[in-house]
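Lab channel / #folding
Pinned by the channel admin:
"Please post every new chain as: sequence first, then the structure tokens as a reply. Keep commentary short and put observations after the output so the thread stays searchable."

First post following the new format, from NK:
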Amino acid sequence: MAPLMLALYQPDIPQNAGTMLRTCACLGVAAAIIGPAGFPTSDRDFRRAGMDYLEHVTIDRHPSFAAFQAWRAPCGEAGVTRGRLILLSTRAEVSYLDCAYREGDILLVGRESAGAPEEVHAAADLSLRIPMRQGVRSLNVAIAAAMAMGEALRQLKML
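Reply from TO:
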């Protein structure tokens, strides 16, 4: 079982999604795609960015955020959820460096074009940001995901 999961909320740029899934494969992180995606996952650009690494990552696919949340919901007699939902957002107050990551955490990135809607923000157990210089808007989502996965895996001694 992978120590972490990266969830992509309605990705709309195939090259970024492919890059994030390739990173997951290289780092041993599971992935989830929360639909609808802005492209078919058979898209040529998606496959090119992911290269042959896509066969080395476990990808759970969910047709909607509601379906993803149902998948995460408490299950079994113990009522254990699948993991904390940690949203990476430019709106968050807490730095990704100040988080004590846990095995089983699910790091969630929003849509490249619009981020994550209010329902996703409300559902997150924690929201984190990557500190940046004044006057810049955001990092590429694949870069932000890689930074957060790297820090989480470093803390968990998985790298």
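NK: The radius of gyration is 15 Å.
TO: also worth noting, The CA atoms of residues 3 and 36 lie 26 Å apart.
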